[in-house]
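Weekly structure sync, notes
Attendees: PL (lead), two postdocs, one rotation student
Agenda item 3: pending single-chain targets
PL asked that the sequence for the first pending target be pasted directly into the notes so everyone works from the same version. It is reproduced below exactly as submitted, 267 residues in total.
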Amino acid sequence: MRGVIVGPGVMGQTLAGAFRRLYPHEELVLLGPPSERRAQLARELRAFEASTPAEASSADWLLLALKPQKALSLLPTLRPLLKKETLVLSVMAGITLEHLRVGLGHTRLVRSMPNTPGRIGSGITVWTSTGLSAEERLTVEAFLGALGAHIQVEDEAYLDMATALSGTGPAYVFLFMEALVEAGVHLGLPRHLAEKLVVETVQGSVAYYRAAGRGAALLRQEVTSPGGTTAEALYYLEKAGFRPAISRAIWAAYQRALALRPPLPPE
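Predicted structure, written out during the meeting:
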């Protein structure tokens, strides 16, 4: 088996890691311009490097993590990689199954939106597909399982929504954690202690949410005593527009995902 990954960024590295976890002894090829990052990843994952599609033909998996702005011009150049049975999986924001079909001239296609925790097998991926047999769908599920949880959807429009919510979601969480740490340091806590408190609080809160079986609003109310410290803090967050700021940010990310979608090229 041969897996070919196109795109050297964070998501390309995430896909490469998932492939190697699922197929520890199969051939993995990193296709793209030479770089130290690519060379280092190749060493870490026991992968081959290739600079042209001719060097990486007959792919069983073609994993696409290109910048959306470059996708349409590059997709036709990847056709030599394909054979009839090749499974193509894309993580490119805004690039639809129809873009892939026209650009690659291929029909076994998966469009997905993972997130960066997939690098350690703890992510969430939303995906949809076309042209796959039942057996091929099981193969895709096994691959995405190496990234973490996954949800298949029939409506491709959900992929753009997932891009804004879960695809970029880790950045929102990290920003929130960063703000909490800085607030702790401002209070006078040593940074290492503030970081420890924040990480354990976030991790424990998620674990408690899963175990409790109740909604986030009820759990928040449970810890909010009238006139207490939590009520005071939440009052200021609400006054500062915490909820609408999050809503507007995610809507902006969604609109950006739609804006990244180029017009379909002629067939």
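Discussion points:
- The CA atoms of residues 76 and 103 lie 5 Å apart.
- The two ends are 30 Å apart (CA to CA).
Action: rotation student to compare against the earlier draft before next sync.
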